[in-house]
Amino acid sequence: MADRTDEEIKAAERKAVADAISAEHDAAKKRLEVEAAERNAIKDLLADLSGVDHGSLTVPDSSTVFQSLLGSRALADAAAKVAPIVAGKLKNGAKVLVLTDLNLAGRDLSYRSVIDQLKQLTTLTSTYPDAPQENKGIDDVRMIDGVTGVATAAAKLLPGLLSLISARRTITNTSGTADDDVAAIAVAGALASTNKQVVVLDKARLIEADGAAQTAWTDLRTACDGLAEKLKAAPESSATKGWLAGGNELLKKAEAVLSAMVASDGAEPSALAKASLQEALHDAGGFDAVLVVKGGATSSSQVVDDRPLLMKDKISLVSTATVSYVLIDHKNGGRVLAGGLAVGEAQLHGVLGDELLPTTPQQEPVHDHTDPMEHGLGGAGPS
Q1: φ and ψ of 369, to 5 deg
Q2: Where is average pLDDT lowest: 175-179, 276-280, 308-312?
Q3: Which residues share a beta bridge with 323?
Q4: 235: alpha, beta or left, given left = phi > 0 and alpha = psi -120 to 50?
Q5: Which of 21, 73, 212, 373 is most buried, by the most CB atoms less than 10 A from its CB?
Q6: 48 CB burial (10 A radius; 0-12, 13-18, 19+)
Q7: Average pLDDT of the chain, as a whole number
Q8: What distance, in Å, lies between the first and last C-alpha atoms of the chain?
Q9: Is the pLDDT of residue 324 over 90?
């Protein structure tokens, strides 16, 4: 074999170099592919945190958490501050009526008006004259004129009496105000827990015995029965025609009053029941004092510490509730024995995700706008 020429040797060298470069390039490409495969494998094992909103916490603007719970505790705290003040103004064993109506004069006026007008209607019904005779003389004519006068008097009397029976109430719901009934129940419960006085809640009491109101209604019932018998026994004639018409009209209206007096819509007691309950304030052995309670303003504040990821968010809440009250000696011209505004508070502090326990601050004395009494009211001895 002849020796290769210089040109052939150089060509072979260039090819060897090119093959080496190509082999190195292929090796580098394979290393990159292996590294890419390794990165993909590691990526599949890790969670994708790109969509995480670090430290994000959403709290609604319209309400706070545990609003009802803390609000109730704040109201109970306010009631607990009222109880010792009221108890300190009364003797042991005193009987106190807790109600939410400040208009005691209006309640009393309705009570008296119901009794007075029931008595007037009973008089008109029970004294209705006997049937006229067939041969009318001058006395019979006067009697018929008297019947007309009775009917006219009844017609004037009945609208006023029925207006007393008709319900006149306005219900107003105000945001941020404690319900009067709930406030009264809370104060009554706190006062009863002192075990010093006999506490009665106005809307939860029963009619203990027949009084003037019940008697007036029964008397009218008896008068109506008597008039009905009188009308039934009278003969129909030209002489009794007007007499019967007047008597039946009077009886019809009196019966309507009797029914309306005991009617109730379920939400409110009947007019007769209201009058009977109001009568207890005038009984010698009745209540020694009246405690009027009204629910006041409520508020709730919330602070949330929105902390970074992996750190728990802190929360602080404060709720307050106010209760106004006035203790009245209703048997002594409505003398005010005590009154004021109690503010209750409930707090909650903790970490979201952990157990949260509400707390009530230690009770503080409530400002009392009356001078202290040397002796309490009612009962058998000083408290």
Answers
A1: -85, 15
A2: 308-312
A3: 295, 342
A4: beta
A5: 73
A6: exposed
A7: 75
A8: 140
A9: yes
State the pLDDT confidence band at 327, using cuts at 50, 70 and 90. very high
Are 347 and 318 within 8 A, CB to CB?
Answer: yes
Query: Which 8-state DSSP code applies to residue 356?
Result: -
Q: Is the CB of residue 374 less than 8 Å from the CB of residue 335?
A: no
- Tell me the H-state helices in 100-211: 104-126, 138-165, 180-192
Cα–Cα–Cα angle for 104, 108, 114, rounded to 5 degrees? 150
Q: Would you state the structure tokens that stand for residue 250, as one six-digit string? A: 């009077």
Which 3 state secondary structure label does DSSP give 359?
strand
- The neighbouring-strand residues paired with 318 are 301, 347
For 145-173, give one letter per residue: b (16+ CB within 10 A) or e: eebeebbeebeebbeebbebbeeeeeeee
Handedness of CA 231, 234, 236, 237 (dihedral sign): negative
> Closest Cα partner for 83 from 169, 175, 197?
197
The token pair at 50 is 């790109």
What per-residue confidence (pLDDT) applies to 367? 43
User: What is the residue whose two structure tokens read 């300190």?
Assistant: 88
| Count of Cβ atoms closer than 10 Å to residue 234 Cβ | 16
Predicted local confidence at residue 229, as pLDDT: 92
**Helix, strand, coil percentages for the chain (3-state, nearest 5):** 45, 20, 35
